[in-house]
Task: structure prediction
Amino acid sequence: MIRAVVFDVGETLLDDTREWGAWADWIGVPRNTFSAVMGAVTAAGRNNAETFQYFRPGFDLHRERQLREEAGKGERIEESDLYPDVRRALQRLRDQGLWLGVAGNQTARAAELLRELRLPVEAIATSGEWGVAKPDTAFFERVAQMAPGEPDQIVYVGDHRDNDILPAKAAGLRTALVRRGPWGYLWADDPRVVGAADWRVDSLDELPELLTA
Result:
């Protein structure tokens, strides 16, 4: 029996298009060029943060985030960044009695911004708050501690093979991959994902029926 569902953030709940575009603008690179290089990094199975190194070797992501904030161009998470199915699916899952949480590789500031959206979830946490990031096993141990039930009663929903599905499964959680964003589409049919994901969906709207069947 599933008792809890915990969601990744980027490209699971949020469409990251605007934020990646803001980064391209910040470093002075055409958006389509930035997107193409990030796609190549993604296809190679590497951390997307490596994209910046092609344009600015030695790029310090933490420092550049601070500079963006100081320039008034820092992180923003708005209602329009949510995928259209998010509120609808979350509310349906909650109405069915499931405990809902959010946990992803984001900054502490992003956690504050997510809470301001007042999503119908019981808890929101980020790697910036926890001091540990995916795919570290300790991240998913924190997920299991945050949500009620045994690990196999908790579903982790994400779009990323290496950061979401494989490490969550290794930690004993159930897993669902959503096909959206570059990673979701790229790896949806990867044999390792097929073997590790309990469910693969095209929309969060599919989850309420699947998780209570």
Summary: The mean pLDDT is 95. The two ends are 9 Å apart (CA to CA).
